[in-house]
Amino acid sequence: MALSMDLSARVVLVTGGTQGIGLGITRAFLEAGATVVTCSRSAVTPVPGSTHRVCDVRDPVAVEALVAGVVADHGRLDVLVNNAGGAPYALAADASSRFHDKVVGLNLLGPLACAQAANAVMQQQETGGSIVNISSISATRPSPGTAAYGAAKAGVDSLTTSLAIEWAPRVRMNSIDVGLCRTENTDDHYGGDAGVAAIEATIPLGRMARPEEVGHVAVFLASDLASYVSGARVACHGGGEPPIFLSAATPAATPAATKES
């Protein structure tokens, strides 16, 4: 088997693939030669080289129609990237149950519906398929102000491991736990360049991710180079978040600590 990042024979569906991290993912797959279809809740200008469909991933009927349309147009579906998601800031005590329903619907139930529809197609294909769920570091650490979002992403990671077993060997399932990423909305969200710089100083690699870097991980997971990778949760967070006590502690130098060997 020839191993490469050449995806020129693959048909890829990227949900929420026209902005932010999704745009970086779409561009990465296009650069790898794939045929890419994006979707979102509204009609937008397609990313150059791709096609776009309107779909609310929280609606299972619409999702089934979306996948059926992709197969009708291209004859197959090789890769699904469940990227659509997100949540506005809201303290859990103040948010309504309807708000929480929408957040969980978009970030957990939507990916599940898309994965079910894609799996139904991939199981019938000789080459199977690959599903990549875009998760978050919020799945594994506290997420104050976006508690329902963090819980939903934890659910996505759990879903990934379960479906990797249920749908093997035809379909490979993996997730990417994404950390802070620099997008078109970052400056507004974190208070401009000064706020972004302060946050980036806490990241071991010294900066936020670029959207295309998340895309490169997704391309790898969808490629033959990852042919034996399934049920994995790949961290894409620049080294993670150092424990907060390290910035608060002021350890005194001691002979044992300063002695040279």
Automatic annotation (TrEMBL):
Listed GO biological process terms: fatty acid elongation
Pfam family, one: adh_short_C2
Keyword vocabulary terms for this entry: Oxidoreductase
Xref: InterPro entries: KR_dom, NAD(P)-bd_dom_sf, Sc_DH/Rdtase_CS, SDR_fam
GO molecular function, one term: oxidoreductase activity, acting on the CH-OH group of donors, NAD or NADP as acceptor
Residues of the Ketoreductase domain: 10-173
Organism superkingdom: Bacteria
NCBIfam families in UniProt: PRK07856.1
Entry's family note: Belongs to the short-chain dehydrogenases/reductases (SDR) family.
Name of the protein this chain belongs to: NAD(P)-dependent dehydrogenase, short-chain alcohol dehydrogenase family
Organism encoding this protein: Nocardioides psychrotolerans
